[in-house]
Amino acid sequence: MKKLGVGVLGVGEMGKRHAENLRRLVPQARLVAIADVAGERARQVAAELEIEHWDNSLGALLEHKDINSVLIATPDKFHAGAIIQAAEAGKNILCEKPLATNMADAEAALKAVEKAGVRLQIGFMRRYDPAYAAAMQRVEAGEIGEPVLFKSVGRDKDAPPMSAYQANVNGMVFYNNTIHDFDLARWLMKDEVREVQSYGTVAIRPEVAKYGDVVASVVNLSFSRGAIGNIESYVQAVYAYDVRTEVVGSKGSIFIGSVNQAPATFLTAHGATRTLADHFLTRFEDAYLAEVRDVVDNMLHDRPPRVTGEDGLRSLAIAVAAEKSLHQRSACPVEIQAAATSGKS
Amino acid sequence: MKKLGVGVLGVGEMGKRHAENLRRLVPQARLVAIADVAGERARQVAAELEIEHWDNSLGALLEHKDINSVLIATPDKFHAGAIIQAAEAGKNILCEKPLATNMADAEAALKAVEKAGVRLQIGFMRRYDPAYAAAMQRVEAGEIGEPVLFKSVGRDKDAPPMSAYQANVNGMVFYNNTIHDFDLARWLMKDEVREVQSYGTVAIRPEVAKYGDVVASVVNLSFSRGAIGNIESYVQAVYAYDVRTEVVGSKGSIFIGSVNQAPATFLTAHGATRTLADHFLTRFEDAYLAEVRDVVDNMLHDRPPRVTGEDGLRSLAIAVAAEKSLHQRSACPVEIQAAATSGKS
Amino acid sequence: MKKLGVGVLGVGEMGKRHAENLRRLVPQARLVAIADVAGERARQVAAELEIEHWDNSLGALLEHKDINSVLIATPDKFHAGAIIQAAEAGKNILCEKPLATNMADAEAALKAVEKAGVRLQIGFMRRYDPAYAAAMQRVEAGEIGEPVLFKSVGRDKDAPPMSAYQANVNGMVFYNNTIHDFDLARWLMKDEVREVQSYGTVAIRPEVAKYGDVVASVVNLSFSRGAIGNIESYVQAVYAYDVRTEVVGSKGSIFIGSVNQAPATFLTAHGATRTLADHFLTRFEDAYLAEVRDVVDNMLHDRPPRVTGEDGLRSLAIAVAAEKSLHQRSACPVEIQAAATSGKS
Amino acid sequence: MKKLGVGVLGVGEMGKRHAENLRRLVPQARLVAIADVAGERARQVAAELEIEHWDNSLGALLEHKDINSVLIATPDKFHAGAIIQAAEAGKNILCEKPLATNMADAEAALKAVEKAGVRLQIGFMRRYDPAYAAAMQRVEAGEIGEPVLFKSVGRDKDAPPMSAYQANVNGMVFYNNTIHDFDLARWLMKDEVREVQSYGTVAIRPEVAKYGDVVASVVNLSFSRGAIGNIESYVQAVYAYDVRTEVVGSKGSIFIGSVNQAPATFLTAHGATRTLADHFLTRFEDAYLAEVRDVVDNMLHDRPPRVTGEDGLRSLAIAVAAEKSLHQRSACPVEIQAAATSGKS
Lengths: 345, 345, 345, 345
Description:
The structure is a homotetramer of 345-residue chains. With 345 residues, chain A is α/β, with parallel strands linked by helices.
């Protein structure tokens, strides 16, 4: 069997999962090496997964001749730079979301990809989740008629440690969390968001304000063809990892997700209690695997990526507008330079 | 047993239900007469409920000496005028929501109530629903900590007939539907909404636009103490009467409502099917009865109303701001004249 | 409007609800009088419901000339005797389940009804519950194909006080609780139960044994046309009043009921909690009203009852067989004397 | 890392899943070889999983010197023989349920295991499912008080092809399906089943009768310490793979499973539709993996198995009694020869 040689950059929680999937569950891939600026972490993961090579830089990783493709799972702010470096080395790329943490970096990354003529897919893995995929099939089959409303809720269980805010490795909530919903909005509604209105709050954790972030946000969406929507994000919901999406149409509605996410109910005189899901790696376990399998298969057979660099750019542009609206207290248009999307990867 | 003499004005779907409850299920009340400008309808309902008197005007209804209190269930735009007339006749009043369809009328109505020294309650019956009432108890007991987000969805099942838009008897969606959620927002969050941002759409029914209305809307809320929120309304959801509310706090969350509203599930090779609730009179049957019982009891014992004229005014002010935001594409403050709330009923 | 004159015998919890429904919510009925051997209770209920007459015996109740029909809601063991007395007085009858607590009494009651030529309906009100009624419609429409399995669970929330066992006013669990499921089994499966196998336990409340009762039971059913089933009853489930029924067929299945019976969910770091239903008068509120309305309407128009004396007899025969199986540790046939069903009311 | 050398016998649907898990997801194991009497199937699976060796007999498999443990996933009727052969070769064993299809074979197998001094675990993987494991923890913590009732439902989605009945590779429904529930009954109730009563039906597929099997069954259970229970099995439920278990106690109840097994709901004017789970390999994916990981870890560290040969024997004895009761129409005791359990593996 011909196999795709892959290298993984960044083996924190997310990158390690990708590496495990590639190593164990994707027969078409050969995980050649992993790299992490924390070299010791790279060494440990390599040992655990029984991978021959590990490196402490992307430069070193790119030296391996049998690596054809690179999976980027660094902190958000290093995504664009890593894409540029990998593209210049002629590698195909699967990069975690977001494409970048600002529009200039995003456009530079896409330009590099175009110039190098390599493939780039952005890691919006929810598109691969069985429930989301089934929803999309029904939308495309016209079963809910014309979409009228897009609604989404994304709540993480535990508050991020303050050190995460201090290190500023990821963008604020719009760039790191809500970006998933921005992508779903475009994908499920088969339309573009043209304008947004947003509010955010730090009320229960005021110290977050000095890092330019919020603990909760609501973003109203206005779509190009007339539909509207709202996305809520909350990073410390305490009770569960709770992700729900609705597409409401003229003939029916689709509701994805559940507040009852585990199959055991405990009934006492105090009521019924259920244990809930607590982590995205649990909820989207299947999606992450399906994603990396699809990417490997497409790259092996030189087929275009399912989630493009332009998808990454457009969702980022919504996040930028949402952040702007937070400060301006007015609706903000979603803006993309014409040039930026001319070269679709 | 001493009984409260009550007259009901307006016996359409809503008023008839109130009349039935008063006639049959509220022993403390005596339903003396009903009135409706459609005299024949008044006559028929009186016959069906075995009530002695019926009239075709509020003036005639107010003539009955043993009527102490009036329940107003006319079309929205007549609420304020009816309140003024009933107040001037010295009657206590339970008026369906909204208090009025514009701020000037609302303020005039409250002034008349204050001057006459009568009681006025506004018909926000959801506060009496067992699930909402239980939620409020938990909020007040501090069980979810500090409220961070208020979320609400209100979807009617069937599209209103175009004749309803033409007759313009009720206000647009914000005044007739969303007003319930505006009241819940203030009540459950124990806070005031200071600013809103809204989008609306007529995409799937463009002819609604000429009546100044929308078929769906999303309203972002900013509360005085820092919390935020969003309310969605949709008047033609097709699949069910679907009302859901969440209060999300620092220690937990409360979710009221369900998309699975009926207790029978039909399982076939095509999946699981449930029959859903289809009407507010079904979903809130208990609430309407509890409301009218509470009002009658309070009036008999000269206790202040649970939902005041000021509550009516403040929810209306949010609707006004939401409508303004729809046109201005910017956040709009919720404004109330200082004088308007000085005389709380 | 012509009205049916009704008298109610027994105004404990159940009889009082019937009286309230008849007095307030059934315009076609006139509740002439109520009777209870506890005369003071009869007097109080009459005052509360504003009914003119009250009596302390069935004999006195039957004296009222404008009473055409009698609703019997006494303790179980008095049902048969009251039916005989009312029938001999020429009254139509709605009698709470069970028809009687032994076969001899049941047969005597049916004979008296037949001889007097009056109508008799047995109070299996679940047939009137919207969810059960919808299920039956689907069964009759053939939507689940041929029925294969009948499953039912009936759990009361709070343990009966020991005084209830001592007074022995009702039959054991099979006669007072499971009898509902025996009736549902026959009705929904459109078939007769020919044999049963049962186990019971008193493990957590051994003192119940001396009254010949159990706290929980499981009864396997064998139907005449080949289907099978099981019914579980538990009288002290602690957590909720939990009633669930399934009809499983060759093309699909119907599931009635839910462990999530209330529409508010409370979410904390400890999981999701729901408040559950706690009483049959809450769960089956609509069914009791629909039942009495149907009975009154049928009696006014001289139409046959929907649930017949034979239905009462056949469900009782299953209970008798289930009790016998408990002691014999073998399958017991369901036996009815041919004569007993010859005169169907 | 020291690794456990494993061979897999039988690579049909179930055995192939075990092989995949061992090959890819259990770093502590080395899958040395697979064997199947259908040699071509063994060859294909070996190629797909990139395993060096494949064989077409257990004898050949046992020749591999670096195989320390054998996983048996043959048709049921070959389990006991394979256990004996593997035990005599000195291998530790994980054998799929049931231990055997009759008591004599089961006892012979346990005797061989005891004589050889090897480890044997039976594949009751539900004990490893997160929901069942969480339930057991609560039972053991005393949270539901004293267990009163055990209820379980096991329904397969699609009818087995008639060829499966003809080939008679597996035992009837009690031995192949209900055996899971028999094991759960013993495990979750921490008690032994002493007697059973059962009914079965072939009504909708009469041709199954000639193979001595049924399409649906209900089994009443009587436990040694007084609790009771019921298990239903149905092999062609059409709508879903539907597994549910309840343990009902004196202080509360635990409900495992759900009829709403997938997280997407489709809402239209015809009601709410959900897509349901359809296969045991999906529902119990996590359990199968956790099971094989635990077995490998225990064998590597020479710790006793979590599910013993005696567990296999005792669940089989319940199946035997249930089958007997089907024919005798009476309660049948669960019988085990004293000698059979003297040597616990």
